[in-house]
Every structure is written in structure tokens, then in C-alpha cells.
């Protein structure tokens, strides 16, 4: 079987796909060896070597030189060996040339092996290229929708943006430009599986990194990000440089930087807040634009009771609770929003209960309450309750 034409095709495919010539030659040798084993038997010791000058794959069957042949597949007599090589000695291994005319079926099998190896090499190249780009912004073109997920053409291969990674309300047509965050790259039997996302918090962080030079240069640091994709997001930023306003730098002149990001996210509202190492101050900024009256911290439960003026309660909680949820995600604290009037009512009831204790006046009751001491009124059980017990 003459492989000269096939080798030219393979070499061209290798160039087109960016596969090294050595890999293609190895695939060619393995394919011919596979076909030869089918013809001559798996027991036979056969080697296949590609001859670049002729474009052929040369086959050799190796046999051991013996006095008496026990297995014709593995052994050759000293007399026959010396016909091939006059210097042959007992226990030498001699390579006997074989015809590579392996037949139509074997040739077809060889071709399948070659192209399978090329596909594997191509998959490996694509995987290695994109695994190093994991965590980056990437652009492609919408190819088609499959069950709510979007297939995006990246040029060399296709990527998948699952339905959950598409911003709610976004609709794509074939040919639309798509920018996303390269979330993951998996190696599968069908080739690399590249997962994109437009809903993860990292995508928003990367958009700011691309838009704000100070973030790219490391002058401003993104401390945390919280998102409800398509609705609202909060991002906390910080800088050690006292001459730079991190929030102002992210907003940009006339709000152009943040507006570019909002446009990319189809109108998602973004709150940029300054990060602070003091948790109560960080939470106060995270709950903006609402005003905060006071904060009580429970370090054991890692929670805060945030007290706000009555007219600020709905603003602090946000529509369907989105503002307080995002603030909790951004800061990492469990937040309980309470109106000032409710706290005052609770305080008045607690002081009243303390005053019910004989000998305690209002002044002492207030001091005890401020120290965290409260009185739970005890009501003696009725005769009927005593009978039940």
C-alpha cells in the first residue's frame, strides 16, 4: 500500500490544524502497524517506519535467529538468516522486510486510525490553548441555540454558554457578537468542552478590569463582587493610594467607564462601594443608597442588626429584598434590617418589663437594658394548667 499521496494529505492537514509533523508521522506509523498486525497476527514483532524520501511506511518483521525453528512467527533458522545477512549469529534479531500492500480493508482501517489520531491531537491543542485562558474575557459569534443554551463559535472551536449562564432577558440571533467569561475547560471523549458565563460575579470583575486602567495596573483592588444578573450588582473596591478615589476611578469621567459596563450587561444597575476593613463601616456602604442609624454586631453568629430610619426601611431592603441580599453577599455578613421605631418599641417593652421587678426604677432599668439584661415576665399557671401538668 503506497502512502505517498495520503502522507501529503496528512501533512497538509497537520499544517492547517497546527499539528506538529512528528505527531502526524507517528499517527501514520501507528495506523500501518495496526493494519499489519491484523494481516500478520498480533503475536508477530512488527515495526513500521516512515520514510520521508519515498513517503512510504516501511514494514519489518523481527525474528530471532535459532538453530531449530520452534515458532515460525518469532523464529528464523540460522541458514535462512544468513541468506538475508551473512554475518547473522544465533540469538540475533533480524528485520525481515514485509510488503505494505495490506489490502483495501486494512488500508481503510489505517486511514481511520490516522484521522482519529489527528482529531485527538487537534483536541489536545485546543484544550491546551483554552485551559490557559480560563478566567479571561473571551469573544465569539453566536452560532445556534440548543435547549436554551447558546453555542458560541470562538474561531478554532465552539463553546457552550448554558442557559443558567445567560443573563435573563438576553436574546441572541445567529451571527451576534458574544462576550463572556471563560468559566471552565473540560477534556471529554468528544473533545474540549468550553463553558462560558455572563452571569458569574467574575465576569463583572473582569469587565471592570478591562475598563479601568488602575485595576489592571494593581493600583485599585476589587475586594468582592455580588450580582443578581440582569437586575443589580455591587462591587467593593479598595486602594492603598490616598491620592486616588477608587469609586471615582471606577465610575470614570461623567460616568463613562461604568456606563460602558452597564451597556454590556444590558442595563444591569451597578453600585460601586469603597471596601473598609471595619465590618460595620463596610456594611454601611454596602447598603447604600439607604441611610443607616446604627448597627449591632453579633460576632459569634457573624451577623448584624442594622437599624434604619423608618423612611429608609424599604430602600435598605430593596425591591424584593435585592439590596440587602447583595449587601450580605458582598460583605459576607448575615444582615437583619430593622426600623428605628420597631427597635424603640422593643426597647420600651424591655424597660417596662424590667421595671416590673420590685425595687427597680426606670433609670436603673435603662442601664440594665443597655448592658443587655432583659426580663422575661413570668405568669403563674392557672389551676387547670397545673392539673394538666
Highlighted features:
disordered C terminus, alpha+beta, four-stranded mixed sheet, 14 helices, single chain, 389 residues
Verbal overview:
The model is unreliable at 376-389 (pLDDT under 50). The chain has 14 helices and 15 strands. With 389 residues, the protein is an alpha+beta fold. It is 39% helix and 27% strand. A five-stranded antiparallel sheet has the order 7-6-5-8-9. Helix 1 packs antiparallel against helix 2, helix 1 packs parallel to helix 4 (104-131) and helix 12 (340-355) packs across helix 13 (362-370).
What's the β-strand tally?
Answer: 15
Instruction: Give average pLDDT, whole number.
Output: 84
Largest sheet: 5 strands, antiparallel
How would the global form be characterised?
elongated
* pLDDT < 50 stretches: 376-389
Fraction of residues in H or I helices: 25-40%
Oligomer: single chain
**How many helix segments?**
14
Straight-line N-to-C gap: 99 Å
Using only C-alpha atoms, the radius of gyration works out to 38 Å
**β content, as a range?**
25-35%
How do the strands line up in the largest sheet? 7-6-5-8-9
Order of helix and strand elements from N to C terminus = HHEEEHEHEEEEEHHEEHHEHEEHHEHHH
Q: SS-based structural class?
A: alpha+beta
Amino acid at each position: 500500500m503506497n502512502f505517498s499521496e495520503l502522507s501529503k494529505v496528512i501533512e497538509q492537514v497537520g499544517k492547517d490544524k497546527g499539528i506538529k509533523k512528528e505527531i502526524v508521522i507517528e499517527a501514520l506509523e501507528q495506523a500501518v502497524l495496526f493494519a499489519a498486525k491484523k494481516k500478520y497476527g498480533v503475536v508477530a514483532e512488527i515495526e513500521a517506519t516512515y520514510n520521508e524520501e519515498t513517503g512510504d511506511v516501511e514494514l519489518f518483521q523481527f525474528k530471532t535467529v535459532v538453530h531449530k525453528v520452534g515458532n515460525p512467527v518469532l523464529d528464523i533458522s540460522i541458514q535462512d538468516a544468513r541468506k538475508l545477512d551473512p554475518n547473522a549469529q544465533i540469538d540475533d534479531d533480524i528485520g525481515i522486510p514485509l510488503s505494505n500492500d495490506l489490502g483495501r480493508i486494512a488500508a481503510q482501517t489505517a486511514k481511520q486510525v490516522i484521522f482519529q489520531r489527528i482529531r485527538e491531537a487537534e483536541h489536545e491543542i485546543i484544550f491546551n490553548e483554552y485551559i490557559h485562558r480560563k478566567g479571561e474575557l473571551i469573544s465569539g459569534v453566536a452560532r445556534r441555540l440548543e435547549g436554551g443554551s447558546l453555542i458560541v463559535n470562538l474561531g478554532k472551536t465552539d463553546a457552550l454558554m448554558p442557559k443558567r449562564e445567560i443573563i435573563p432577558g438576553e436574546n441572541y440571533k445567529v451571527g451576534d457578537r458574544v462576550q463572556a467569561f471563560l468559566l471552565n475547560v473540560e477534556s471529554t471523549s468528544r473533545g474540549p468542552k468550553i463553558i462560558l458565563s455572563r452571569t458569574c460575579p467574575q465576569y463583572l470583575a473582569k469587565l471592570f478590569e478591562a475598563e479601568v486602567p488602575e485595576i489592571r495596573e494593581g493600583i485599585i483592588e476589587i475586594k468582592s463582587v455580588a450580582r443578581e444578573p440582569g437586575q443589580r450588582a455591587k462591587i467593593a473596591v479598595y486602594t492603598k493610594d490616598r491620592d486616588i478615589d477608587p469609586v471615582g476611578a471606577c465610575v470614570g469621567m461623567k460616568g463613562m467607564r461604568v456606563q460602558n459596563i452597564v451597556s454590556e450587561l444590558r442595563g444591569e444597575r451597578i453600585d460601586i462601594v469603597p471596601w473598609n476593613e471595619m465590618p460595620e463601616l463596610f456594611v454601611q456602604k454596602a447598603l447604600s443608597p439607604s441611610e443607616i442609624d446604627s448597627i449591632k454586631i453579633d460576632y459569634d453568629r457573624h451577623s448584624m442588626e442594622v437599624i434604619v430610619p423608618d423612611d429608609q426601611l424599604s430602600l435598605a431592603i430593596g425591591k424584593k429584598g435585592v439590596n440587602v441580599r447583595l449587601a450580605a453577599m458582598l460583605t459576607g455578613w448575615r444582615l437583619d434590617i430593622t426600623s428605628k421605631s420597631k427597635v424603640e418599641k422593643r426597647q420600651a417593652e424591655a424597660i417596662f418589663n424590667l421595671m416590673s421587678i420590685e425595687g427597680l426604677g426606670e433609670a436603673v432599668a435603662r442601664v440594665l437594658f443597655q448592658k443587655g439584661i432583659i426580663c422575661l415576665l413570668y405568669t403563674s399557671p392557672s389551676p387547670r394548667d397545673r392539673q394538666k401538668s
